[in-house]
């Protein structure tokens, strides 16, 4: 017998101003469910999630939560007031029975220490702290709105693994296809105010959605034909009994009302990119390029050739220097040593993902036109700003809307619109997929496929990289960058491992550099015949160290299992929790080091 739902939403209706945002939305969540909530930008996904969390009261409909069920919602803008550190913020969201050590464990896994001052956090750090607070109590229900935003690839893959092992029922909103495919078992589609449910994961969604649209289009044609037939009868039909005629005329009015009120699928963005004359065959050539900041190498001994129409993806953990590398390759930053040559007739077109570059006081029209005009130059042709805005799903009324009140998705579409209007033949996109809906991502992919120029793409979206690029340049740590042919999945297959957190050196694999545009790799230490003395000693002693750490971890967990410890001695409870977090981190580091050395030994001896 199936378990009863933990959370039920029925007939949820909500209107903000004119057109209803929600007009009959349903959602049911049972224990262990993994549901992705999908829909266009502005369709009301975040609002429906807030209704589910109890943060927004609907105009109509019923929300039922099983008594005793715990719910955690990932806040887009967390409230840090009253908290001196990120650790105290995360711990404040936990209950008496929750394991406090998880707060520090999650913060450290997400790249924070727990000692940060919340008032000085960046947008990305705030997002990570909010994610840690949502995950820490291990609630019955987790409601996550774009949890991968501002996370780098190592953090996204860590979060994916963490959620796979979670016992919480999940509702996920995300633009990351790979993330949704890995975690979802059912799909709820919010479209034109109502919901449809598919008892399959996201991988089956797009085919199902297209089938629904085709059926709607057939029904629409049938309705139009029926209206035409009734209008023909009204004009030319033989007069019959008055009552029958009145009834049939009323039926025609009803058909016309249905046609008038029918809401078709939300329009799609129309993306085009302005291009200048073609560049030379060689766009960028880097020879033995190096760049450091103080003692920290960002790029070391990099040699790379980028030809016309190449699609180069750059991936790496946050802090590895991806933006610095892009600036070096495009000639915007001089190297410490080596040489970068930018080819003939190369015109740079840059999408700057720093939303701070958008003045919040300027209007949408002013951002696109530069102010003082109502036209935009696109591909050498003058277009009215309203028409160009419609291509990017902005309404005419938003022309005078200040940038500061736009949503994250709208700001990103505005950045795209401005960048793609500028002429160029070398297009540099830095995280273009943030906050875009899946349909707009499809159109962006198609536009990049038709683009006649050269593309450099910085992204954490694994699926988008697979679809768009033909070479991936990945950080190997300590300033080394190596190119691999193909997309992200091809890079993982050649390299043997995905992108790792900054400071973690990838195991030596058998992958080869991209044949088309090979980067010059640093000399491999594995050219020797055997491990060094210190490495042999480390490999020999690590199993004993791991066993000792496992024993310590078991003792610490046993101490925390005492239900009276926190009430008797809160200071000791917190000290044990901190020690446990440190022990687990040390154990994970020892296990990773042992695996690295063992793989190195097998490769050398094999």
Automatic annotation (TrEMBL):
ABC transporter domain location: 7-217, 284-501
- What GO MF terms are annotated? translation elongation factor activity
**Do you know which SMART domains this protein is assigned to?**
AAA
Organism, as annotated: Methylobacterium indicum
Keywords noted in UniProt: ATP-binding, Elongation factor, Nucleotide-binding, Protein biosynthesis
Say yes or no: keyword Protein biosynthesis present.
yes
User: Carries keyword Nucleus?
Assistant: no
Q: Which family does it belong to?
A: Belongs to the ABC transporter superfamily.
Q: What is this protein called?
A: Elongation factor 3
Database matches in Pfam families: ABC_tran (PF00005), ABC_tran_CTD (PF16326)
Q: Report the SUPFAM superfamilies cross-referenced here.
A: P-loop containing nucleoside triphosphate hydrolases
Among InterPro entries, the record links this protein to: AAA+_ATPase, ABC_tran_C, ABC_transporter-like_ATP-bd, ABC_transporter-like_CS, ABCF_ATPase, P-loop_NTPase, Val-tRNA_synth_C_sf
